[in-house]
Amino acid sequence: MMPKVPIIQGGMGVGISLSKLASAVANAGGIGIISGTGITVDEMRTHIRKAKDRIKGAGYIGVNVLFAMNDFAEKMKAALEEKVDFIISGAGISRDMYSWGKQAGIPVISIVSSAKLAKISERLGAAAVVVEGFEAGGHLGTDRPMFEILPEIVDAVSIPVIAAGGIMNGFDIAKALSMGASGVQMGTRFVASEECDAPLAFKEKYVNANKEDLVLVKTTVGLQGRAINNNFTKLISGSNKLKIAKCHDCLKNCSYRFCTLDSLLTSVSGDVENGLVFAGARVDEIKDILPVQKIIDNLTEEYRSAQMDSILPLS
After folding, report:
1. Burial level of 246, CB count in 10 A (0-12/13-18/19+)?
2. How many CB atoms lie within 10 A of CB 51?
3. Strand partners for 162
4. Among candidates 289, 258, 281, 284, which has minimal Cα distance to 21?
5. pTM score, whole prediction
6. In this predicted model, what pLDDT tens digit does every residue of 10-39 receive, in sequence order?
């Protein structure tokens, strides 16, 4: 399985990366990912089919399902039935998920943030691992930078390693590949794309964000998450419990201090002040909303330029 460019678009929930974004990335030569988080199994099936219908040539579509969610097994089995090209799973691992993938002949990829977890994933049957560093948006599994963890994981496993978290341009891609990564996963840059499934207000929050607007919040999953500062992050920065209108009962383990899913649904409905807006550490570098093809063309150009710089002697 070889895409034209070694770029996987990160699976971003809730409702940020669905069929529109995933198919645009696949058509531009990368690998598109539909996030299965916060949508029903039927909605996920519909988005997989829509994405496949929109692909013009040989494009690849994967699905991201989170192990921490109660509907993990159901979502994973549905994605396998829909014959996606692969499944990426984060927020925990189980032996079952790899054997289900094997039975269906579909690769299962784990998101990890340590060499130890990468080794366990490989032993259990992961086809590849995505190394996510501290610079990522959303939930964070480590406080270490990606480029620090990457070489350790490349040395620890013999399966392909994909670098994620803080990859923003073609120079980052060149650096990751030179360190042994087989490809990169990028989420934040693709949010500010014309085809991203998020509303315009959400994308504009990215374009207008400064470095000092980023905060780390403790979500109900029990992990820290990186988000853009707004009314909601101020509300949850204390220890007070927020009144939950409706519990979605979505997590295997939840602190019930507020509803992470509901706060993500609020922001994706366009109310970006009163819901969570997750973003990567380098979101301030994004200055415009571009078509996916243009983003990939820019990345390719920067990557080539970085390669030329490494070949040419310094004057």
Report:
1. exposed
2. 28
3. 130, 183
4. 289
5. 0.93
6. 989 888 999 999 999 999 999 999 998 888
Number of helices followed by number of strands (H, E) in the chain:
12, 11
Per DSSP, 265 falls in state: H
Task: Answer for the pair 142, 257: CB distance below 8 angstroms, yes or no.
Answer: no
Mean predicted confidence (pLDDT) in 277-296: 96
**Helices in 55-142 by DSSP H: which ranges?**
72-81, 95-104, 115-124
What's the CA dihedral at 52, 54, 58, 59 to 10 degrees?
A: -70
Q: Give φ, ψ of 145 to 5 degrees.
A: -65, 150
Query: What is the per-residue pLDDT across 216-271, written as a single tens digit (0 to 9) for each?
Result: 988 777 778 899 999 999 988 876 667 776 777 777 777 777 788 888 889 999 99
Backbone phi and psi for residue 247, each to the nearest 5 degrees, phi listed first: -90, 125
Nearest-10 crossing angle of helices 115-124, 146-156:
40
User: What domains sit in the chain, N to C, each tagged with a CATH number?
Assistant: 7-198 (3.20.20.70)
